[in-house]
Amino acid sequence: MTAGGPIVVVLDGRKAVGERGGTTLLARAASVATAAGVPLVAIVLDADGDGFDPAALRAPGLAAVHHIAHPALGAGDPEVAARACWSVCTSATPSAVLFDDGPQERAAAAWLAVRHAAALLTGVTDLALDGGRVTAARRAYQGAVTEYLETEAPVVATLEAVQAGSAPIDHGEGPAASDGAAIGEPPSVVASDGGLGDFDARVRLVEAAGAVGDTGAAGPSLRAARAIVAVGGGVQTAEQFEHANELAALLGAVVGGSKAGIDRGWITAAQKIGLTGITVSPDVYLALGISGASQHMAGCNRSGTIVAVNQDRRAPIFRHAHIGVVGDLADLLPALVAEAAARRAAGHGGAEGGS
Amino acid sequence: MNDPLHAVVCLKATPCPDTVAELAANGQLRLDESGRALRLAHVPHGIYGFDEQALGTVVELARSAVHAGGVQGGGAWRTTAVSVAPADPDVVFRRAFELGVEDGLLVTVGVDGSGGGHAAGGASGARGVAPLLSAAVRSLGADLVVMGASSCDGGSGTVGPTVAALLGLPCVAAARALQVDGRRLRALRSTGDAGGETVEVDLPAVVTVLDDGWEPVQPRAADILAARGRTVTRWEPTDGTVPPAVGRTAMTVDRAANRGELLDGDPAAVAAALLDRIGGVR
């Protein structure tokens, strides 16, 4: 890898590239590459090679797509992903390799950085390249501070999800159409096995949904949600939780929550939002009975509009909320459900379609 | 009979995250004179968050191995806690010993902070710690290395995978639950919004853990008594990998403050007002 080389963005074929997470990453990588004046190259890691058309991938400056298909990629072994990426890096000599920001992506990024002596940055919220100089911003202390970092290219980085609206996504035409920049010529597509040959993953996938412990149920795609109804310890009865679900359905929202929501049995660990769970950035984050502990807020404080409903007016979440309601969920939830249902029935949408 | 499995737990003393969060919520988080770090000397330091879970995980697995006897292959495990130059080593190792960890290895990096004999010793954060930890683990000959998925301060989430890469060991990142059967480890790990998946790996391996759904491990009287006789070995690596430099040029505090609108009144009126404001969501 060298300074001045292209930006390489790594997309996980196991997550549908057309969904929000993948296209957001691609759009952000395109922005970094455009600002740096270097080409963009995409790697798509694909376990089975089916169901994804690399030629359909579009972004400004996207010069090439390396579609790497190999069964070993199905295990999600970070070492395998890093090896596959390096097969491209040896020829593309990138100035930066960008991953999505998740626990497995951070692991793969670490492997790639170590193997090839690149600087490593994770949870990056902003990244810029100026020649061989790399500047970045990331949050630390569970979101309480932002630190600004500087290093030399080449760099391997994971990009944190951005606040809704800053990287708009076009579900039908791809990311390029949504940011208004020139799409350019279709990228060249290179298919390979990433040099993995008969390499076996040392971490073996046993079951897609977990069997060890009791928290393995796969959750809905919270990161792709435009609206989230999040439940916490303040949702105290099954009736209140049912109302929260009804409200989510009326809003077209996905249900998630805090650790307290797991403790009360409302959600599974797969639906946990926060430092130890999923980082989300929906347009609307409706937090019901969530106190706003820093571990939770680290996962949601980049939402477009944070609405907090809590009985305790001193709850920390009110410091982060754009709209706050101090009140009893037992009274407010039925009212919200009734109002949202009435708006839907009236056909002017309310939360569903805009008013 | 096989050799006892040697489990190493890597621990980092960090400022109490609840105290930091409270300071942040009250607008009392301050930068130091350099403007590149927080002023946290007055905040208690200890083992928190994922590192606390990593310690509990190793202790639980070791206790289970004793109960299972031959099923675990080697019977009782050997357990070691490793920490890189904490400001107060006693805070780290006393906690580990009281929960039943047998040995402690304090990785020193030179009394003058210059990094001692290790080229990476003067580095701070994840990039400096990982080479030191990997050198320590290599010297111990560990079968299983467990650490928190990320720390409560920097939170880079890269130390475990970097240690694994430096040692050439497989890495299971962000595990929520572990089982060890002989020399095989099975883990439920987080995959972000895809939920969880179960993976398997042959030891030796590096595992980083989350704290979801695990009960805190309680100290036992016998371990508390035994802790008084435990000693910490000081160890200074002399060579290792030097990672590329990453410098922190500035830091800003997110001055959380009430920034929003407060809705009040009759529930029906509040509901209508709220839906007016969040309208447009599809």
Report on this structure.
The complex is a heterodimer of chains A (355) and B (282). Chain A is of the alpha/beta class and 355 residues long. Chain A has two domains: 7-192, HUPs (Rossmann fold), CATH 3.40.50.620; 222-346, Rossmann fold (3-Layer(aba) Sandwich). Chain A is built from eight helices and 15 strands. Chain A has a nine-stranded mixed beta sheet. Chain A has a five-stranded parallel beta sheet with strand order 12-11-13-14-15. In chain A, β5 (119-130) and β6 (133-140) form a beta hairpin. The radius of gyration of chain A is 21 Å and the shape is elongated. With 282 residues, chain B is α/β, with parallel strands linked by helices. In chain B, strands 9-8-7-10-6-1-4-5-11 form a nine-stranded mixed beta sheet. A two-stranded antiparallel ribbon of chain B has the order 2-3. Classes of the chains: A alpha/beta (355), B alpha/beta (282). At the A-B interface, α2, α3, β5, β6 and β7 of A face α1, α5, β7, β8 and β9 of B.
Considering the chains and any ligands shown, give keywords for the structure.
heterodimer, A: alpha/beta, Rossmann fold, 2 domains, B: 282 residues, alpha/beta, nine-stranded mixed β-sheet, 7 helices, 13 strands, 29% helix, globular
Shape of chain B: globular
Number of domains of chain A: 2
CATH class of chain B: Alpha Beta
The Cα radius of gyration of chain B reads 22 Å
Helix content of chain A: 25-40%
> Uncertain regions of chain B: pLDDT < 50 for 5+ in a row?
70-74, 111-124
CATH superfamily of chain B: HUPs
Per CATH, what is the topology of the largest domain in chain A? Rossmann fold
Q: Roughly what is the average pLDDT of chain A, rounded to an integer? A: 81
Measure the end-to-end span of chain B.
63 Å
Whole-number average pLDDT of chain B? 83
Shape descriptor of chain A: elongated
Structural class of chain A: alpha/beta
End-to-end distance of chain A, in Å?
51 Å
CATH superfamily of the largest domain in chain A: HUPs
Strand content of chain B: 25-35%
